[in-house]
Amino acid sequence: TLFNYILLSLIYTSYTLYKYGFKGWCKLVYKDGWRYFILAFCDVEGNYFTVLAYRYTTILSAQLINFWAIAVVVAISMIFLKVRYHIAQYAGILICCGGLGLLVASDHISGSNGGQALNAVKGDLFALLGASLYGFTNVFEEFLVSKRPLYEVLGQLSFWAIPINGVQAAIFDRASFRSATWNSAVGGYLTGYTLILTIFYSGAPIVFRMASAAFFNIGLLTGNFWGVVVGIKVFGLHIHWLYPIAFVLIMVGHFVYFGTEGVLGEARKPWLGENQEGGSDGIGTAKRRVENPGVMV
User: Fold this and answer.
1) Fewest Cβ atoms closer than 10 Å to its Cβ: which of 1, 23, 138, 148?
2) For 70-109, how does the pLDDT look when each residue is reduced to its tens digit (9 = 90+)?
3) Are 194 and 3 in contact (CB under 8 A)?
């Protein structure tokens, strides 16, 4: 992920410097750098512990941790951001989680749950910690992008993540770097991974603005299904008959969850005021729609 943070910083930190000027950027770092440092630290560690979990536990166990990430997001949003969910939204979340449960069950039935765990308890704890950090990061990023420009948030996130990630890799992964295979194929894989991850990081804040961190996380549940599609086409895997049913459940859960709000939906953030006066008027925000009723966001 270090390469992803570097690319994000080249794009968004550079643009922030262009918009604010060097003095304005330094003032931003001095005034709000601590907020973005916390965001970057949690994002880096969420990535680290989630990947580390796969060394010790099975894919089946790692998938189950998705439930916990959603619970963390909902709890933090309710406690700190005063978000109140409609009963149908809880139902949508449960339907989506039910679909994930079918995915996990089909993995168990078909025996494709990732094999024998090296140390299941340690792996599950790492996955749990990674999911908790992801949940906090998503809610914190939703809060920041609702009030600040996207380029500022992504620029500062990546700017602080580079030294955090770099120092951690230098301390814990030196042996891996020395023993790794470096060739053109590996370079191609890393390049593709970095580009896709950068697109993912660039799109996530827009989803946070238009919907919420909770919606974002239940949306990620579909990743399990699409991962199977890739596995079938690329690796020749075979799926269990429960997979299509699980995917339908997840999609139905999305419609139930997101169909309970009005036109603005979850783009209207309770912590920004009745008319969203405390928020940004950037793309995807309710403030832009409130101030310009004819503008599509």
Assistant:
1) 23
2) 889 999 999 999 998 888 888 988 888 888 777 767 766 6
3) yes
